[in-house]
Each structure stands twice: as structure tokens, then as C-alpha cells.
Amino acid sequence: MMLVNFVVSQLFALLTAVWFRLYLHPSKTSPFIRHVVATLLGFYLALFCFGWYALHFLVQSGLSYSIMVFASLEHMHKYCFIVALGYLSFCQITRVYVFDYGMYSADFTGPMMVITQKITSLAFEIHDGLAKREDQLKPSQKYLAVRRMPSLLEYLSYNCNFMSILAGPTCSYNEYMAFIAGTGYHPQHQEMANGKENGKYKLSEPSPKNDVISKLCTCAISLAVYLALCKVMPVERSVDPSFVSTTPFYQQVLYLYLAMLALRPKYYFVWTLADAINNAAGFGFNGYKKDGSPRWDRISNLRIMDIESNIINMLILQFATSFKMFIDNWNIQTALWLKRVCYERCPINPTAATFLLSAMWHGVYPGYYLTFLTGIAMTMAARALRHNIRPHFQASDSWKLVYDVITWAGTQVAISYTVVPFVLLAVGPSLKFYRSWYYCIHLLCLLLVLALPVKARHLRAKEQQQQACLQKEGCVQGEDLQSDHHATTDNNCNKKDT
Description:
transferase; acyltransferase activity; Membrane-bound O-acyltransferase domain-containing protein 2
């Protein structure tokens, strides 16, 4: 019943989004009205789906907003992070281990996960905008920094609007405020998002109709595929004793890949529908393509064509050929959140800290922690392979193709192997699966990490800066510019290296 309520609510949100864009357009009404309507509709959908459990959304948001207002700016972001994530974990623990009422697929902590992302993102953005100097911020942090404290209405609208209350995706506070104010179509700082045509900016408001229809078709196909395959190839069969004892190992590998492949359309359906809802409301515009058509992928949560692969994809090399590329195209907004609040700010072992935070955010099932702990080893091994093996395959197109095909196959098996505990949830079945595979990929990752050295991140960044400086200097020399320009280039390179 909960799943039915969720789908009905999202379809209602889709129709409401169209009405919101047409009749509450920024040119027709004020930001105040848009905030009020978006917030009230969000609470209505939350109550319809989850009943009075939706009050947890208000409690979590209210506690965090109080900290933002009354705590010192110097430590406010840390307190908000602890309180928001702590309250989410408390609700997940009580739901799973106290009440245990079987609402895993559509439980009230799902929306709280998205709200947690928004609360913590906003706290860090406020800290960057009000407590840090400009020279302390990275370019992306300058763009996202919030320069004034949001009002309570703005804060609730950002956290609980009807477009993202049920399934996200997360977006930055500045992007949401630009959408509400109607300035989201102005030229952005990103490349290929400025809509230039004949040297002039294209300022006319594009229509999301074609992209919404395309995404709804993707939703329909994804749902049909999932319903057709989910019962035919359950992941649980991979740990069935009779299946393991009677099936050759290569067939077990193939079955695991197909079973995991059958699960992905569920996420494609949920995330693509959420993206379509935001687009239908006029949110998600990301500039223009080279042919002048609008892009509506600013807050998309996945790139299906970059994840899945077929023969055509392999020929044009547009598939996920590494563990990192898969992660970069899957649950994109969550990956950005992890990068912005953890990876870029953690001074000690940011990779492990990021995976640990992701496990805590997902919930308290032991399978999550097994998956993300395995993910740390996978990421380190993939990094070692890429830095040590890939350069040897770049001599010709044929060798590049061989490398891409091998890494594609390895990525598919590694991803499937890693996420089995995420699906099985419990420790017993998860370890039973890994034992049936003799922990072979774990051992392979350990061997690769020990045998193939990878330079520290700051050393790799320094080398990249040096290479960029040398390339820049070479271009300057090739253009036969004045000698004082050479001196300037050399000084810039020296500054970057220090």
C-alpha cells in the first residue's frame, strides 16, 4: 500500500508541477507565494504517504534551523551535521530494530535522507558564505556559498517542497532560490551552459516539455522491465545452497550480473520520475547544447546511458569503464553531497571517511556497511589499476579498445559483487555469498593495492599543475610572444608549485 501511495503521490506531484510552472510562474506571482504553495503541497504529500510519521520531517528541520540561527557561525555547520545525521540514524534504528514494521521499500526515513542532505549542505554553504574569507574557498564553494541566513519559510520550502519531498533529488540552496525567483535561466558559470548563439546569450525561457515526455517514457520502460524481471532473477538465489553447489562458477557470475541488472530499473524509475517532476515545474535547466537545444539535467540523479552498455556503446566507448565512472553516473546528487560535505573537507583519509558517511546515511542494516567497506577496497584497487596499468594501453586505438572492454567487464562484476550485501541487508546471507566466491575479489583488491603503488592525492594534483604549466608555457613559446610574458608564465607556475 505504501508503494501505491508513493507512486500516486509522485504522479500528483507531476501534474501539480505543470500547474505550478504555468499558473504560479515567477512573472505572475511573488517568491513568497511560490514558497508557501510549494511547502504546503510538500507537507500534504508527506502526510498522505506517511501519516503522522511525516512530523519527523518538521522536527529534524526545526532542530537544525534552531542551530543555524542561535549557534555561532564558526561551529554551526558541525552541529547541524551531527544533529541532522544523528536524528536520521535514531529514526532508522527505531524503525528497523524497535518497530520492525516492514516498510523498507517506502519508509518515512527515505525522505529524511534527502532532507539530511539539504540541511547539511545548506549549513556548510552558510558557513562558507558568512564565516570564511573568499581566498579560503574553492571556485565551486564560492558559487554555492550562501551570503545571508534563510528565513524560516525559505528554509522549509527548500527542505520540504512538493517536487522533492518524497524522492529528491538534492540541489543547492542557491539553485533552488534561483528557481523560485525565476532567475534559473540566466547564464551560468559552467561550460556549455551559457546558451550562446551567434555571440549573444539566449535568454528566452525554454520549455521542458520534450525532456519531461522523454523521461516519462524512460520511467514506463524501466517500471515494465523491473516488474518483468524482479521475480524471475532474484538476487537471493545467489546464496541458495543448491544453486551454488550445482551451478558452474562462470554461470554464477553471469547470473549475479543479470540479477543486479534487473534491480537497476527500479532506481531508474524512481529517480527519473523525480527528475521529470522538477523539470515540469521549471527546475533543472542547465544551459544549452551545441545544437541550441536546452539541457534539463542540472539536478539529475543518474545518467543511464553512461551506466548501462550495449554493443553500440562499446563501439563508441561511452560505457562505464571504471568503478569511479560508475559511481560518478549513479546517484549523482548524493555523490556531489558526499564530495562537498566530506571528501573535500576531511583532512584524514577522505576516501574511507566518505564511504563510511555514505553507509551511515543509508541506514543501519549491516549489509550497507559491508557494501561500503568493500567499496573502499574497490576504489583503491581501481585507482591503482588506472594509474599503473592504463598508460600501457594508450599507445593505439586498438589497445585502448582492449583496455576499455576488459575494464567494462571487470567493473560490472565488481559492482555486482560489491552491492550484494546492500540488497541482502543481513550479515549472514552476505558473508555466505562472499564465502561461496572465496572472497576472491576482496583478495584481488588487496593484492592490487599492495603491489601497485599510487601517489598521494596532493602529489598527483601537484604533478597535474606542473604539466598544465608546461603545456601553457609551450603554447606561449609556440606563439612567439614577448619575453616578459614568458617570465609571467614561469612565475605563475612557480607559485602553483609552492
